[in-house]
From TrEMBL:
Places the protein is found: Cell outer membrane
Signal keyword on record: yes
Leader peptide range in chain numbering: 1-22
Keyword terms: Cell outer membrane, Membrane, Receptor, Signal
Protein name: TonB-dependent receptor
InterPro entries: Beta-barrel_TonB_sf
The organism's place on the tree of life at top rank: Bacteria
Length: 584
């Protein structure tokens, strides 16, 4: 250790001596050589520092920052420029129409026609309303070359009361009808004026109905309705019809099933049948369940469902169970321009005496009433808009129906007494057959502008029957044209044109097996009814916001066509009247 210390001290002494010698030497001699010292720069983080946003000042006196105020010295400059006044664009404004809750209309026309309507609607409070309507149409007749009276009378009315609450909305309705039609189509030349003496061809219908429906919020039942109608005539016919429906959305996992439960009962009786005096009684009770699931994905809407129906014929004591498809879909191919749709559905159609009389008032009170089994109804089509003012619908359909109701002429009884007013070839019965129907059709609607609209529909039918020779009184072609024109604020007009193609009917005698009388070799004949056009028009003038007058003309071409065999219609008809709107 001592040795190391000795060496270190010796080295320090030697280095000190050399430095002293060098300094003495520099004092004596100035060397002019340039010496460059080269050393690479190696930066480090410690060489950088961050300037603080608010640095601290080391000055002994720190002055506070003074507020600086800027002043603008505005000097007015004279100018002769005058801007032009703007002109507001003129808008095509329309005065908001005044809407009234009630109106009354009355008109009189040819054939001693009377037409009256009354519609009422009044809000008792914020959530209570009461209303109703009354409609009457009658004519004293006057068709040429008839053997029996052809006047008719048709009156309908209904009263309504409703409430709308936070969780429920409901209403109840009560109504009735009174109708008189005449079996004026006595077949000629089988009968003459002599045969018509003493024949009272009037047939009077009457009926009353009551119904109620409700819509519920936050409930297991979304909607429900109940309906009851009693219907009869002056031939001791009587019918009761009851329908109840309950609809609900049933949640299952992440989706909902819409289900509707329907209970339907029709029961009634007729005093006799067409040939004999034996009474007819009928009763059909059905209960159906129709669950449906709707799937919506972008442009596709798909409804998948099925209808399950149980039917019991209470008079015959027979029961049947039916399963029907209930599937439909629509797909937007090109937005609103082209939409494809289609589906296949079916169902049990409950036929009633009331429905038959409203479709054909010349039926006889001797009908058999049974439901129609519509096995399936397949349909497909394209619909959409060509432009904002033109829309279209092209469709095709095929139906297969068992026990489809067909109106067939009641033939004239042969070899027994004609003791009823409907025994003169002037009434219709109902026959049931298995019928397949192929239908092609289309619709076109044109809104030329907001004042003029035009609509056109056309359908072509092909029928195939199982037992009957033809699909009686069903047209092959049906078409219609509608037009409405708002001429100005006061004047308005419209027109309609209907076309119905040929129909097949029967005419002649109904024979009875009786050995005392010979059987006719050709008791019946088939008659083809010609197709017909029916053109109608109307025009009106608004006197003020409340009062307007109108005029109508029907069957402008004055065609003496027959909608039903032996039943010519009234020729050219004209009617004029007034309508008054008001509020309570």
């Amino acid at each position: 250790m001592r040795k190391h210390i000795h060496i270190l001290l010796t080295s320090l002494f030697t280095l000190t001596s050399l430095i002293s010698w060098a300094q003495e030497r520099d004092k004596d001699t100035l060397d002019t050589n340039v010496i460059n010292v080269m050393k690479p720069y190696v930066p480090s983080i410690s060489d950088a520092f961050k300037v603080k946003e608010s640095p601290s000042l080391d000055d002994e006196v720190t002055n506070t920052k003074k507020d600086i105020k800027y002043n603008i010295f505005s000097i007015p400059v004279a100018s002769t420029f005058t801007p032009a006044k703007g002109i507001a664009a003129v808008l095509d404004k329309q005065k908001a129409p005044k809407f009234y809750n009630n109106y009354a209309s009355l008109g009189f026309g040819s054939y001693t026609t009377i037409l009256g309507e009354l519609y009422l609607n009044h809000a008792i409070s914020r959530n209570e309303t009461v209303g109703g309507y009354f409609r009457h149409e009658s004519s004293q007749g006057g068709i040429d070359d008839l053997l029996l009276d052809d006047k008719f009378y048709n009156t309908n009315f209904q009263a309504t009361y409703g409430q709308t609450n936070r969780d429920m909305a409901w209403n109840v309705n009560f109504g009735g009808l009174h109708q008189i039609y005449n079996w004026y189509g006595m077949e000629q030349p089988l009968f003459t004026q002599v045969d018509a003496v003493g024949v009272n061809s009037a047939h009077t219908f009457y009926g009353a109905h009551i119904s109620a429906d409700m819509v519920l919020e936050d409930s297991y039942i979304d909607k429900a309705s109940v309906f009851f109608r009693h219907f009869g005539d002056d031939y001791s016919s009587s019918e009761n019809h009851f329908v109840a429906k309950i609809g609900s959305d049933i949640p299952i996992n992440d989706f909902k099933i819409n289900a509707e439960l329907t209970i339907d009962y029709v029961g009634g009786s007729f005093d006799r049948n067409y040939i004999t005096t034996d009474a007819i009684e009928y009763g059909n009770f059905s209960i159906g369940l129709a669950p449906t699931y709707q799937l919506i994905q972008e442009d596709l809407t798909l409804d998948l469902g099925v209808s399950l129906v149980y039917l019991n014929n209470t008079e015959a004591g027979k029961s049947n169970f039916y399963v029907y498809p209930n599937i439909s879909a629509s797909y937007r191919i090109v937005d609103e321009l082209v939409i494809a749709y289609g589906g296949i559905k079916g169902g049990l159609i409950q036929n009633t005496y009331y429905n038959y009389t409203q479709d054909n008032p010349f039926v006889s009170p001797t009908l058999g009433i049974t439901p129609t089994d519509q096995q399936y109804h397949g349909f497909a089509g394209l619909k959409g808009k060509v432009s904002n003012s033109i829309s279209y619908n092209v469709k095709a359909a095929y139906k297969a129906e068992n026990n489809k109701a067909l109106y067939r002429n009641n033939l004239v009884p042969y070899d027994f007494n004609k003791d009823e007013a409907y025994h003169y070839g002037n009434s219709y019965g109902v026959v049931y057959d298995n019928v397949s129907t192929l239908n092609f059709g289309g619709e076109l609607n044109v809104d030329v502008n907001r004042d003029f609209t035009l609509g056109l529909t056309a359908d072509y039918f092909i029928y195939d029957t199982k037992d009957e020779a033809n699909a009686w009184n069903l047209p092959i072609v049906k078409a219609s044209l509608f037009a409405d024109y708002q001429i100005n604020d006061q004047w308005f007009a419209g027109a309609s044109l209907f076309y119905e193609g040929e129909r097949e009917s029967l005419s002649g005698y109904e024979t009875v097996n009786n050995p005392l009388f010979p059987t006719l070799s050709n008791p019946t004949r088939q008659v083809t009814l010609d197709g017909f056009f029916d053109a109608n028009a109307h025009v009106g003038y608004r006197v003020n916001e409340r009062l307007s007058v109108f005029a109508k003309v029907n069957n402008i071409a004055s065609q003496n066509y027959q909608r039903w065999l032996n039943y010519p219609v009234q020729s050219f008809q004209a009617l004029a009247g007034a309508t008054y709107k008001f509020d309570f």
